[in-house]
Amino acid sequence: MQLPIRVDPKGDVTLQRQLSDEIRRLISDGTLLPGTHMPSTRRLADQVKVARNTVVIAYDRLISEGYLEARAAQATFVCQRLPHHYNPVSAFQI
């Protein structure tokens, strides 16, 4: 799965933060639906051209926020039940 994610290596925000913000945006706007199988950290790192540890940190942040869930010996998925503060971005568009 190719995710439409862009990060700016020269930006003021860390790559980990940019990546977690982009994934959160994809979840919020409905591009990534609950239950969606996320790419492996290696695959996403190759796609975005960042270190694997950058993706691991971004995934860990989103897991701690309740957007992703890691299933032992399986993979990482978008949570079936998103955080109570989750609001689709489209609801805020004018």
Structural summary, described in words:
The protein has 94 residues and is mainly alpha-helical. It has three helices and two strands; from the N terminus they run H-H-H-E-E. The chain has helices at 15-28, 41-48, 52-65, and strands spanning 68-70, 76-78. Strands 1-2 form a two-stranded antiparallel ribbon. Strand 1 and strand 2 form a beta hairpin. Helix 1 packs across helix 3. The radius of gyration is 13 Å and the shape is globular. The termini are far apart. The model is unreliable at 90-94 (pLDDT under 50).
Record field, number of beta strands: 2
Residue-averaged pLDDT, rounded?
A: 88
Quaternary arrangement of the chains shown?
single chain
SSE string, helices as H and strands as E: HHHEE
- What about the largest sheet? 2 strands, antiparallel
Note the beta-strand portion.
5-15%
Q: What's the helical proportion of residues?
A: 25-40%
Amino-to-carboxy terminus distance = 30 Å
Query: What would the principal axes of the Cα set say about the shape?
Result: globular
Class of secondary structure makeup = mainly alpha
Low-confidence stretches: 90-94
Short synopsis of the structure:
The chain is mainly α and 94 residues long.
List the helices and strands and how they pair.
Blueprint: H1 15-28, H2 41-48, H3 52-65, E1 68-70, E2 76-78
Antiparallel strand pairs: 1-2
Helix pairs in contact: 1-3, 2-3
